[in-house]
Amino acid sequence: MMERSLFPTARLLLPLLLLVVLPSDAGAEGVDYYELLGVSREATTREIRRAFKQLALTMHPDKNPGDSEAHDKFLQVNRAYEVLKDEDLRKKYDKYGEKGLDEQQGGRYESWNYYRYDFGIYDDDLEIITLDSGDFEAAVNSGEIWFINFYFPRCSHCHQLAPTWREFAKEMDGVIRIGAVNCGDNNHLCRRKGIKSYPSLLIYRAGETPEKYNGDRDKDDLVRFSMQFITTSVTQLWQGSAFTEIESAFASGLGWLISFCSDTGGNAYTQQSYTLQTVCSHSVFNLWRQGNFVKNLQYICFSLSDCLEPRTRQKLAGMLVRVTCLVKEGEIHFDLGLVSLQAKLAHHRWLISFTFGEGNAASNEYKKLQAFLRNDHIQVGRVDCLADVELCHSLYIHKPCVAVFKGLGIHDFEIHYGKDVLYNIVGFAKDSIRAHVTALRPENFPSDRKEPWLVDFFAPWCPPCRALLPELRKASIQLAGQMKFGTLDCTVHQSLCSTYKIQAYPTTVIFNGSSVHEYEGHHSADGILEFIQDLVNPSVVVLDPSSFTERVTGRSVGQFWAVDFYAPWCGPCQALKPEWRRMARLLSGQILVGSVDCQSFHSFCQQQGVRAYPEIRLYQKKSPKQDRYMTYNGWNRDAHSLRAWALSALPRVSVDLTPDTFRSQVLSGKDHWVLDFYAPWCGPCQHFAPEFEVLARMLKGDVRTGKVDCQAHYHTCQSAGITSYPTVRLYTYRGKIINSRDASVIANTVRQRLQHLSLHKKPKVTSLFLSFFHFLVNIKT
């Protein structure tokens, strides 16, 4: 018995990977952008920004007034920066070179003073973590407390705050996380977060609504505001209960900081002793510098590495604090070998730190992991790859890393490629456990699997790759049981990536038996889901010269076609692809949508008069003498703009009503009517007009549709009680209010109402105030 494919029409689709002839060198057309900025292809966004700033300060035309070529030289450097700092543009450049980019980019730059004083305010501050769209959500949802400064480079108040924010960050180092978001570089992120003024200072706690700081912007007030979000618990210990309390806390995974004071030190003890939910050594210093303790203090830690850590002993000794170590059997990190690891991973979730001998600088941070992951039932362990060479070699782990094993065995795991900081690791672990993404190797690569797989070919140093990984996890949850997800590190498995001609990262490919489809679209879970949906039920017809002649040129009367003539190497064409698919779904049943690859059919496209890409055409009602079409010349190429343009070419179904026809046909007639009351100057009315025509076509035969111009027929609209535009009303027996601008929702509501009326067979009431219900009452210009 044949197995049914997830993609029933996949055999009709050409493998996208085979359509693209990639240039061998991304910078073949001119100077290589990476070389121009003096950075490697593995450079992070922060490294690219810092390199550009250094060049801007020396190469800017303002600093080189006698150099006639200074403008052109700096324009080239600026263009390189604008491309490489943008995740999507960087991928297109890596894949197609300069010819894959929009030629209009990089045509202007700022003054030298801007780059000297306004550009990258916090780039050089180690205590302040600069967040961008790729890692913001992981940070604020990690379980740690974040105080984030949303700023704009040209904001004078932001620059006035900067010195204070730096001092404040040093003061709070180790207590909470201090971050900054440049809203000039991350405009969409700031808009999503509701940032309307600069600087905006917000406290973020996982699962809580962000709280905005509105007080004075001095260090002491900022510290006081921050400390109110630090939850503490002070336990009074005495001889009979001390070790009972301590053992109870250990059973819950809590560490202790215990201060022993005389009676006279009671106030200090009460105010400043903490029961820590993490290993205590990292936080004790911030605790002590807030005030003076009495001299008789003991520092008790139940972790051997804490007590032996030199900085801990030195600082405590300087404060005349006696250190006592009570080491519990086993530490937060369990050392795991091959045999024990295989047994443990078969039934439990683990976050494993793979090390090579000595721990790295983040080892103290790793000690806090168990406390943050306890509620997710994730255990924490460590593997020394120098001691377990065979194990690490079998997993293709050749350098220190952190991986999550999902309780399904030793080969079902995912490696963390984000920042090597606590908040990022915690967020990764929680997301990875819920998701269904697996690290791939030659042994489990799905080249010949029957079930569909989405494989992400990536490089860990690539910022767009790292931004895509959390989106893959979201998509894997949505498609659980329908598609499997895997990632392949091309820096480790170079030969396998070369087999599939991977030359840019990330490259996302769907394998479905013998069919291969490369994903081109937004680096988001929604974009991936839409692409897969389109593979299952293609909305865009792939046309060649033969099918174009048969279906478009030979279209029947009343049939309309929207066609995209494109080239795979064209950057704007690639940006249009997901919007074109989305538009096709929105136009389903009204206009047929197709695409022609002009790289594969170059001569045919020339015959059709196509001279630039993308060329978007709408083929209208046929003429006996010529094949009529209209070309899209709009500025916006998003799905909704393209849809509105296409629908505007269709013949109208609704009719224009005058005061006389409104009274005779609507109020006194026997038909049901849906009316659009509008004003020509009203922007929302213009946007809604194509949607109303869609509604008219959907309801044709059941309900008549009409439009009333309230500017021309003001008294008619006033007598109907119209107070805002557009207002849509169904004139029938009675009804209810529905708020919607979606034709399908409106049509379903109307049909349900008509079905209800047919069952009750009630006569139509012609009185104006009893004969209608309306919706869209909340739309005002």
TrEMBL record:
It holds the Pfam family DnaJ. GO terms for biological process: ERAD pathway; IRE1-mediated unfolded protein response. SMART domains: DnaJ. Residues 117-231, 429-537, 538-643, 644-759 form the Thioredoxin domain. CDD domains: DnaJ, PDI_a_ERdj5_C, PDI_a_ERdj5_N. Residues 1-28 form the signal peptide. It is found in: Endoplasmic reticulum lumen. InterPro entries: DnaJ_domain, ER_disulfide_reductase, ERdj5_TRX_C, ERdj5_TRX_N, J_dom_sf, Thioredoxin-like_sf, Thioredoxin_CS, Thioredoxin_domain. Residues 32-97 form the J domain. GO terms for cellular component: endoplasmic reticulum lumen. Keywords: Disulfide bond, Endoplasmic reticulum, Glycoprotein, Oxidoreductase, Redox-active center, Repeat, Signal. GO terms for molecular function: ATPase binding; misfolded protein binding; oxidoreductase activity, acting on a sulfur group of donors, disulfide as acceptor; protein-disulfide reductase activity; protein-folding chaperone binding. This is DnaJ homolog subfamily C member 10. It comes from Gouania willdenowi.
